[in-house]
Description:
The chain is of the alpha+beta class and 274 residues long. It is built from six helices and ten strands, in the order αβαβββββββααααββ. The longest helix is centred in the last third of the chain and has 20 residues, at 192-211.
Amino acid sequence: xxxxxxxxxxxxxxxxxxxxxxxxxxxxxxxxxxxxxxxxxxxxxxxxxxxxxxxxxxxxxxxxxxxxxxxxxxxxxxxxxxxxxxxxxxxxxxxxxxxxxxxxxxxxxxxxxxxxxxxxxxxxxxxxxxxxxxxxxxxxxxxxxxxxxxxxxxxxxxxxxxxxxxxxxxxxxxxxxxxxxxxxxxxxxxxxxxxxxxxxxxxxxxxxxxxxxxxxxxxxxxxxxxxxxxxxxxxxxxxxxxxxxxxxxxxxxxxxxxxxxxxxxxxxxxxxxx
Length: 274
């Protein structure tokens, strides 16, 4: 699933081609995504693009009349084509621009979304989201205050976008490893000092991934069609039974809420005692 670095990489990739350009028209080949494609998108004609922003894992394309809200779902991607090209099997939406360029949305599993909103403040999908992880609002004191009385395990807690947005499975695993914290410890066991280390680890791992173009696993492509370059630098995620790159001990894996969790019991400390 594309996570925050992938979405931010996509935003940075498409922004120079969209902002200041004129959306000539949209082609919607398949409206059946996670939610039906908004009818308004299908009727847009000759609309200037004012900005391309991101909130959590949503791409926000600003027009005079409102906003196109795009979620990449489990396997979606956007890329820029220099001109219109024949569609392939999973190419569901094209935004065709006055200069001939095309923003093409591809989604094999069709779990993404293309929504319309006149005012972001009233958008139901953006309501109740926590702070951005790279913002000043996400800091050690905030995390510590939120952790009080939370008996949930730390890793699924970090992945709750009401706490903080964009810390998906890959980066939660990596940040906890970097922090030396076992993923099944209770959130309320965190000290202020550990929260400081964990916040910095989250910011570092996300920043590094954005700089390197997002994590390529199965489906993610950058907007220029190139894969991202971060997967080769993962320390624990997807490395079950391999040697830890730091200490040489074996990386182990458990399931937490149907998601795979990876850890090194030598480098991380906390609950797991088996």
